Amino acid sequence: MGIHTTDSTDPDNPMDPLPTPATQAGRDGLRALLERPRSAVIGLDFDGTLAPIVADPDQARAHPEAVPALAALAPKVAAVAVVTGRPAGVAVRYGGFAGVPGLEHLVVLGHYGAERWDAVTGTVSAPAPHPGVTAVRAELPGFLDRIGAWHGTWIEEKGRAVAVHTRRADDPQAAFEALREPLTDLATRHGLIVEPGRMVLELRPPGMDKGVALLEYVREAGAESVLYAGDDLGDLPAFAAVDKLRSDGVPGLLVCSGSTEVTELAERADLVVDGPQGVVGLLRRLAAALG
Fold first, then answer.
1. CA 251/CA 210 separation, integer angstroms
2. Contact 207, 130 (CB under 8 A)
3. How far is CA 47 from CA 91, 161, 194, 207, 257, in A?
4. What is the pLDDT of residues 222-266, one digit of tens each?
């Protein structure tokens, strides 16, 4: 898409003007959102977008201003959906989304849409787990030992998926690359796929991705415009879903929560902001612009 606008305004000042997307499609998406906010869906990744990336995923929490920004914006749009690979309930806890005035109709699409938490009911709905995940979970520790996994790699239990992290390894990128092929083979044997991320390889059932989850939700909501913000490779399917919606006549704005670790997303985005702080700033300025 060429050179992309990076939002360099002050994220702590909600009265700063909204940044101008670098692409015509992005400008059309932003204009549609501002002109018809009641028919707009705001879709947001969690880790790296609403919450800063940390070495231990169990310690991840939403940016301190994320919930206030969402609470200011959500009543002015059709819907806000957090789309995450985490279990829905975990994202709700780590985000602090439950029981917040203004977020009564927030939806969290967890496990790439396999789980759904609705603020209006406070409950999670989900199908039965894939048997391959149970098998991989039991086999993975011994499997990593046999292939001589790098010191510092570790396993994260995710309920409907299981992930191997390399961020704590002596050479995180080398460990990531060394594990990618054997973990793909393991996943394939159990009917799963591998989703690469920022120093993490997640083994999960096929047919679950953020693009499917976002597309289904936008269509359910009858949205006439959509904004999606993400930071990682797992957000590329959601970007593709917005492209699909654009081709169907639904304007969209693609936002990258900036990271030097994942350049593919920045290259696809209409607008790049400075991580979760930049996302919060954008949400606050959108809320202010909508009055």
1. 18
2. no
3. 9, 16, 18, 21, 10
4. 999 999 999 998 999 999 999 999 999 999 999 999 867 678 899
